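The instructor's notes for this session suggest beginning with a concrete chain rather than abstract definitions. Hand out the sequence below and ask the class to guess, before any prediction is shown, which regions might be ordered.
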Amino acid sequence: MFCSGCGKLMPEGSTFCPQCGRPAGAAATPAPNPASATIAPPAPPVYVPPAPATALPVVPGLAYAGFWLRLVAYIIDSLIIGFVLGVVVLILVLTTGVLAFIRNLPNNPNPGLVFQSAMFMAFLFLAAAWIVAVWLYYAWMESSRFQGTLGKMALGLIVTDMQYRPVSFGRASGRFFARFITNLIPLFIGYIMAGFTAQKQALHDMIASCLVLRKI
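After discussion, reveal the predicted structure:
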């Protein structure tokens, strides 16, 4: 008797094939034919529509700050900066003799050229000092652990990068100086963009890749 599996001659009375171990009398299982195997067609790709733009970020407890909140924060900051720097300028005027010069103008309507040049240089110095002071105020406060100026803190606003992380001093400085470009756009459109862009970004926010968020 031959094995139905491997074809080896089996001794008489054997229950199992000594070669392959198949039981005696078991039918052979034909090997699958790869050519006749049915291959299922690949599933068609499923179209997933893009998520619509939303006014809410992915960070829980935060949302994009709109134009009006940011305007109020800017007004608060302007009042604080104007008051502090105004006091500093007043002290300088009282201690440098400028006030006395202004009082004596009726008696000396034609000051010398040297004095006029000194006054002009003093004006330029004060203007530059004003810009530096405002820059340091915004850049330092927005890159600090508070992530915002006093006006933003009063309204629960913070400044982050596009991944909702705190910004560095360099990025906060870039955002501040980018406002000079925003100021060049007529009709304050660069600022009004914060009211209708998807992530409530003004032009300087886009340039510096920053976001202004509010705590909810």
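Then share the key points. Residues 84 and 139 are 17 Å apart (CA to CA). The chain has one domain: 62-215.
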